[in-house]
Prior knowledge:
The complex is a heterotrimer.
Chain A: H1 2-25, H2 31-56, H3 64-85, H4 91-96, H5 99-104, H6 110-115, H7 123-140, H8 147-172, H9 182-195, H10 204-214, H11 222-229, H12 239-243, H13 245-263
Helix pairs in contact in A: 2-3, 2-7, 3-7, 3-8, 8-9, 8-13
Chain B: H1 2-21, H2 23-47, E1 53-54, E2 57-58, H3 59-76, H4 84-89, H5 93-98, H6 103-131, H7 141-166, H8 176-189, H9 203-208, H10 217-224, H11 230-257
Antiparallel strand pairs in B: 1-2
Chain C: E1 2-14, H1 22-25, E2 32-45, E3 50-54, H2 61-69, E4 76-81, H3 90-96, E5 97-101, H4 113-123, H5 128-142, H6 157-169, E6 175-179, H7 187-204, E7 207-211, H8 215-221, E8 224-229, E9 232-238, H9 239-246, E10 250-255, E11 270-274, E12 278-283, H10 290-300, E13 305-309, H11 313-326
Parallel strand pairs in C: 3-7, 3-8, 5-6, 6-7
Antiparallel strand pairs in C: 1-2, 1-4, 8-9, 10-12, 10-13, 11-12
Transmembrane segments (chain B): 26-50, 62-81, 108-132, 144-173, 179-199, 230-252
Protein name (chain B): ABC-2 type transport system permease protein
Organism (chain B): Kribbella sandramycini
Amino acid sequence: MAESVLRQEVRAGRILLRAAWRAAMGYRANFLMTIMGGVALQGTQLLFLGVLLAKFQVIDGWRFNDLAFLFALRLAAHAMYVVPFGAMIRIDQAVQQGDMDRYLIRPAGAYLQVITSYAPLMALGDLLLGCTALAIFAPQSSVDWSPVKVAFLVAAVLGGGLVEAGLQTFLAAFAFKLTSTMSMRILADDTISRFSGYPLTMFGRWGFLSLTFLFPMAFIAYLPATVLLGRTDQLPIPTWLAAASPAGGLLVFTLALMFFNRMIKHYNSPGS
Amino acid sequence: MRERLTGVRGLYRAGYRSVLAYRADLWFGIAGLVIQATLTVVVWRVLYAGHDEVAGIDRSTAVSYAVLAAAIQAVIMPWQFSSLPFRVLRGQIGVDMMRPRSLISQNLAQAVGTMVGRLPIGVAGLLTGLALGGVQPPRSAAGLGLWVISMSLGIANILIVNLLVSMTAFWTLEIGGFMIVYRFATAFLSGALIPLWFMPGWLQPILGWLPFQAQMYAPLSIWFGTRDGVLGVLALQVGWVVVLFGLLQLVWRRAVHKVVVLGG
Amino acid sequence: MIEVDALTKEFSRPDVRPGRFAGTRSLFTRARKVTRAVDGISFRIDAGELIGFLGPNGAGKSTTIKMLTGILVPTSGTVTVAGQVPWRDRRQNARTIGAVFGQRTQLWYDLPLRDSFGIIRDLYGMDAATYRTRLGEFTELLGLDEFIDTPVRSLSLGQRMRGDLVAAMLYAPPILYLDEPTVGLDVVAKGKIREFVAEINTRRGTTVVLTTHDMDDVERLCRRVIIIDHGVLLYEGDLESLKARYVTTRDIVVHATEFDLTSVASPFAEVLTAGPAKATLRFAPATTSTPKVVHDLTSRYPITDLSVLEPDLEDVIRQLYTERRTG
């Protein structure tokens, strides 16, 4: 039964996604500009880092090439979040304007319908930037690449995307209770954008631990990067936990999704 | 005149109230800036480890600048800086144009209201910076006075440029991507993210001749007294406001001819 | 088919108090106000019924319908639709019901109508042949062919509503919920929609639950009605007995061309208005039969035209509400 539900979801997801992209293609006029928006959104952070490193060279003992790799890893992970889950940004409207009504009476999961409600064109900009940055900076980093490490990198990027998706899903679930969750989701997104690409141990032991267990931003890029770069000795947590970091995304996302589905019962459809 | 003021005041209040209406938004804005100001202080202190001065700027000035810029940015560069594109898209702009106030003063009043509503966020950021010992006060009372003047000119500059950019909506309805590029470009070019001191040498003169540095970098450099010829800076800021306002009138006049009312 | 027992829904909303600094103060207060939109309603609807669900604005109609469809979770009480609890068995429920909400569309806004139907076909896993015949049938019934290739955002309200109806019935759900389907529509569109609803109810045996403000809809379509106000049930039963119970008088209008009706009188009816050419009289059908009054009048006066006015449902309902409120 559980498997058949999953199969149904995958099928429904494909159908809805196709519809969303077909609708998005109707507005082709600003396709390029929209993608550039995606590039600018994260690219500014890359620019910021570039300008700083040109003047300062080293941040907390990390040199330019490894920092750039860490940052590229977070950009790629971010793309893995925004491309499939980007439509979640409109959760407040879906709840306030009653689109949720429709999602709740169709034979597919409500969450699935939220994330397939439109095609986030801008996410293609993130994807472009993330892949390019990773392709450029991964070879230049001091990682000694092997097939296993490449596989770990892929898992880390996917897992990092799921961590972000999980955090955002968790916050989005509050849309059923609060008037607006936009600012809190922007806060999370902004904090991740600005700070998840740094060596997080620089924020001190407690800072690092809260960014690992409380707001698990460390799982997005920093922990996997320390594993690849052989820098796990600077972590105040066991090495195995860092090594298992790509799986963190699956855990965070699953918990968040369960929470989201539980919160649906608080939905107050507008105009009733 | 008096009647005119009350009308504009109503719109100002609407902008201010719309910020307060979303209580949670404001609290998260405050919490966010407190967290980010804290992290920013740490980042800059770590950056300066092993340096006394970089590009002629010492550690405490750099940290102060970063925190102050973040606090000011939170107030005067809100994500949602104009309702104009949305109103054009929804065809409500026709109604706006029939009101007895000009659309320009309506929008400016609303934007100012939004900024005032967001003041608590900036204050929270500033207090965080002070608590962490990360913010230096201006060098003198005169410096503070000059900063107030310069900051007001910077805000006027932002208001006008924002409105100018929003007016693109009269020509094309799909401006989401463009708006984001604009937002991040101004954040970068105005010096809200990185002070112009640290920018690469070839970029600095270009930035100096763009209107954006007059929004944030100019007032902050007066705060820290890092620039000679304060009067020259102020004159340049005034010049930009005048030029941009002229441009705004020009674009506005053309926009009126082009009102596309969708689904009205 | 649908069983509702002691159904209750409460909403809790922030309580905004007006006054000076109301906005600033609201930053710190957490006062909430609980309102009960639906208050212990029970009823049942049998398979194949076409039932009118009536009530003034804010009576709790939409809230009830949303609980029946599984959109809202009840605060207390139970709903069973075709043996399932709608909000718990959402996926199953989705295949059992179709729904049309007047104010918002369920269609894909940026795509042509035809594409929306295609998506529904795929989503509900319909086979191509059934889809083709059904869509063909519905297209003819509702006259969709002129606009089936138009994007939904460019459709008129009436066209969109017809599209929504088809979308809700394509997969042939045994139950159809219609929430204000004719509001704001012109006479032609209203007629088409009524025809369609009557057709699917009689020919296919679809159970239809209809909420509306339009008493014409009700008179033309419904045999039985449920009336609620302030979240409580006011009346449940057939339309005829509702009228019989609340309409104790009936009016008769007579015309004459060669006789002055100013002095018209009858032992069975009371004169309301009397002019030279036209008079209106009122009688109580419970004690006096209509033919008796008609016979009395036509035998004594040279009447050229006569009509008995049907009781106005709107008056009936209005009377019902006021009675409840004052009583």
